[in-house]
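Q: Start with the shorter request: fold the first protein.
A: Done. Sequence, then structure:
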Amino acid sequence: MWLWRLVFSTFTILLVLLLFSAPYVTPGTASYYVSILSLVLILVGLVASGFLAAIDWDPF
């Protein structure tokens, strides 16, 4: 379904933006831990939306 592909694409864009900002984050700071948490959430969202797109689940 197009919805899950759109969600997957959005998560992919967020992951790319996060990876571009990674060199500028200093380890041990609050922004470092926020970026790690964001990375985990984005990866979980990517896996979930990829799975839902693969099985073509229609929530409506």
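Q: Next, the second protein, separately.
A: Sequence, then structure:
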Amino acid sequence: MCPGLSAALCLVLIPMVPIVIADITGILNEAVRLEGISCSNMVDVWFLGKDNKTKTHVVYSDISGKSHVHSPYTTLIELLGNGSFTLGPLSREHEGCYMFECNGSPMVYENLRVVDPVGNVSVVQVSDGLYCNFTGYSVSVSWFTNKQPVTDGSRMRDGNRTLAVPLNETSAEYECQVTDAMNRTHRSPEVRTQDPERHHWALLGAAVVTLLILVFCVCKIRKPVEDNAGTSPALPAPERGYPLN
């Protein structure tokens, strides 16, 4: 149904003819294709907005090949035939319901949603595994380990954005893949998980180094104290003067 309209209101607006209602997602600052209709004579496309309070003529075409793109769409639309066209670059103002009429009768309603592009895809290590971090709107998220897809769905949660890593797993390379609204994939840089055994020895080595530094510091502090404990403080030399009577 058209954005912002109740089901009852949509039924009032749509006459009793075969109707197609489609949802389309486009990406901000990119172009999207809106599919037209086969019509015996004349196709008109109208933009109804998000709340159906506007009706802006977008495109006119007829069977003879005559067509016209109305302002303010003249620089944004490329006609493809049968009323189909690409619209872009998209802005938030293009969101809403597009009505395709055949010979004056509504036939198709296409609801366009404009979303942010996917970007900044990266893998972040968290306390319970790995997290696929990104900006924008995604259709799906998937994971790869050592170039192979992760197929165990029980390891994933939060819409597949969080992946559990087995505690006994040796070092491995992970990356996440994000699919956007145009079905394009965006992959993160690879992240290598820490080998548990190597991590254990690294912690042990750091602890030993810290202990040695503490012992050295304690010895440096104790040595001057011990030296001072075996030496009497020097008495000042008597001053010269005349004897008292």
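Q: Describe the second briefly.
A: The radius of gyration is 37 Å. Residues 1-16, 196-203 have pLDDT under 50 and may be disordered.
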